[in-house]
Amino acid sequence: MNLSAQAFPAFDHVVVFGDSLSDNGNAGRASNGPVWVEHLATRFGVTLKPSRTGGSNFAVGGARLDPRSGTTSLRAQARSYLRASRPQRRTLHIVYGGGNDLLAALGQPQAVAMVDTAVASLRSIVADLARRGATDILVPNLPAIGITPAVRAQGRQAVEAANKLAERFNRALDQELSGFAGHTGLRLYRLDVWQLAERVSADPAAAGFVDITTPCGQRRPCEGYLFWDDIHPTTQAHRRLAEAAAQVLETR
After folding, report:
1. What are phi and psi of 47, to 5 degrees?
2. Is residue 91 within 8 Å of 12, Cβ to Cβ?
3. Cα(209)–Cα(165) distance, integer angstroms
4. Tens of pLDDT along 150-160?
5. Are 208 and 214 in contact (CB under 8 A)?
């Protein structure tokens, strides 16, 4: 897919709340090149800089949705942004998190409660943005996190448990966000990362990958690899994610 910038809604700004999948410099970039929000912003002609250097990407590697998880949580990121700014028209707000909450919940007796807390936090962020005047919000769901080399290394039971947590997260998120349907002045875009990852798993070659299980490592070329390390995708995979996001934004 090679969509022109003219095909998309005209966004002058992109604001991001997230974790290492979206971080491009607050805690460091966890990939071998640009992450998906950078690829996406480039399509709008927008330069996306980390918030620590005055930019609008508040994502921090390791961040969780759980507001009790510290000063880098997505809840804290959104609070910091809303304290200093008021959402403007022609701004795309991206809220993407939950992966770290699920990894932390894996194997824990309170795992279900941890997932529900994460979803509730994400919903509250969307609600606060909408209340303050945000008009365009993109919320991706989570892939089956058992696909990651880190979880695979823990065995089949861990993979199954991780994927069930991701399924619960996505179902709960769909239910919570359905309440925003018909919200005046709000366009809420959903990106189905779960289905995107399922298609890649079913037919890696069709998506341009030759290896979807082994981290490419930092000493070899990463072309054709899905994973850069045990958890994080390569920039090639991030580009595919950005293309899928672009398609969602174009069709609304």
Report:
1. -90, 120
2. yes
3. 26
4. 999 999 999 99
5. no
